[in-house]
């Protein structure tokens, strides 16, 4: 299967929406992506197979309290159409997105996700780096990855997501 990834284009919006709705079985994540689309400093990538969008990943900036001088992005949501799950499409999107985050100067990435899936990319529980999530999630589900070595050594605090996440 020859899957490629590229930045989302405006004409991808309906396919990205459908991908999120299929993957999650609800419109909530699709609505979140729509609300965050075009946000400054966000990264939105699609996975393509035969000119069809089969996956999507979004990274958006977060803040930390107390304020820190580093840039941190949140990964999420990520979606893959059910027919293409568990064959590496999500991994390809994660790796491409993390590389783009590095390229754009992000020092770290946080996420709320499956603790069995994301450690393969280097994510560790946020609390091990002194970070807490503003949302009431299981400690092992809130994870962080340092994109710059030791970027979080002198940083700790509460990660605040964009207000659009609270509307979800």
Provide a concise account of the structure shown:
With 168 residues, the protein is α+β, with helices and mostly antiparallel strands. It is built from four helices and nine strands; from the N terminus they run βααβββαβββββα.
Number of helices: 4
Average pLDDT across residues?
95
DSSP strand content = 25-35%
Q: Could you give me the name of the CATH homologous superfamily?
A: Gcn5-related N-acetyltransferase (GNAT)
Radius of gyration: 15 Å
Give the end-to-end Cα distance, rounded to a whole number of Å. Answer: 34 Å
- Report the major sheet: 9 strands, mixed
Uncertain segments: none
The count of DSSP E runs of length 2 or more, i.e. the number of strands, is: 9
How many domain regions? 1
The CATH architecture name reads: 3-Layer(aba) Sandwich
Class computed from helices, strands and strand pairing: alpha+beta
* Helix and strand element order: EHHEEEHEEEEEH
Q: Quaternary arrangement of the chains shown?
A: single chain
Helix content: 10-25%
- CATH topology assignment: Aminopeptidase
CATH class category: Alpha Beta
Describe the protein's architecture and organization.
The protein is 24% helix and 32% strand. It is an alpha+beta fold and 168 residues long. Strands 1, 2, 3, 4, 5, 6, 7, 8 and 9 form a 9-stranded mixed beta sheet that branches. Strand 2 (43-49) and strand 3 (52-65) form a beta hairpin. Helix 1 packs antiparallel against helix 2 (28-36). The radius of gyration is 15 Å and the shape is globular.
């Amino acid at each position: 299967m020859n899957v490629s990834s590229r930045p989302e284009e405006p004409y991808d919006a309906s396919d990205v929406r459908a991908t999120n709705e299929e993957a999650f079985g609800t419109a909530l994540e699709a609505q979140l992506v729509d609300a965050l689309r075009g946000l400054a400093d966000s990264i939105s990538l699609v996975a393509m197979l035969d000119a069809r969008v089969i996956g999507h990943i979004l990274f958006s900036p977060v803040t930390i309290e107390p304020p820190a001088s580093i840039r941190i992005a949140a990964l999420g949501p990520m979606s893959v159409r059910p027919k293409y799950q568990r064959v590496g499409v999500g991994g390809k999107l994660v790796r491409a997105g993390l590389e783009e985050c590095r390229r754009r100067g992000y020092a770290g990435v946080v996420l709320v996700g499956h603790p069995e899936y994301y450690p393969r990319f280097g994510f560790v529980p946020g609390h091990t780096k002194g970070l807490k999530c503003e949302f009431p999630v299981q400690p092992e589900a809130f994870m962080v990855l340092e994109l710059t070595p030791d970027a979080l050594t002198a940083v700790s605090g509460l990660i605040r997501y964009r207000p659009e996440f609270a509307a979800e």
